[in-house]
Specification:
two-stranded parallel sheet, about 40% helix
Length: about 150
């Protein structure tokens, strides 16, 4: 419900595809449930743009998506705790995907990184597997609009 792609891809297949790219994800999250009919105005930006992030957060599917993400992440943490012995540092890797890997997945990953960082967790810099395919017309999050969001949302 709420639009977006509906093709269901099993987590096992997604994790296998990620491993072929040398990415070992503990959690795989689908960001295709955030369609944006007005996104054509922002095609020159990546999901790092404040309007794309805002639209994801305000989308009617966002609370359900975030609740599901939290459930999957907590399950991965519990599994990792059972696998880890002694005082080893616990690390959970999260992969977020959408159709093209430029807007929705980038915004969703940025949102999760912000939440974890705000809660005091260490998050390494985000790695965008589709970055090379964003094209010449994409600012790649480096334009003034992306680098300097309005003060009220910082």
């Amino acid at each position: 419900p709420g639009g977006g792609a509906s093709a269901s891809i099993p987590d096992v297949e997604l994790k296998e595809a990620l491993k072929r790219k040398n990415v070992d994800a503990d959690v795989v999250l689908d960001a295709r449930m955030f369609p944006d009919p007005d996104a054509f105005m922002l095609t020159k930006h990546s999901g790092r743009h404040h309007l794309i992030i805002s639209r994801i957060c305000l989308h009617r599917n966002f609370p359900r998506w975030l609740k599901g993400a939290k459930r999957h992440i907590l399950q991965a943490i519990q599994w990792k705790k059972r696998q880890t012995t002694g005082g080893a540092v616990l690390s959970v890797s999260i992969a977020v995907y959408c159709r093209a890997g430029k807007h929705r997945s980038v915004a969703a990953a940025s949102i999760l990184s912000h939440i974890f960082t705000s809660e005091g967790y260490f998050c390494p810099p985000l790695k965008h597997l589709s970055y090379e395919r964003w094209g010449r017309n994409c600012c790649r999050g480096e334009c003034q609009e992306c680098l300097n969001p309005p003060p009220e949302i910082q």
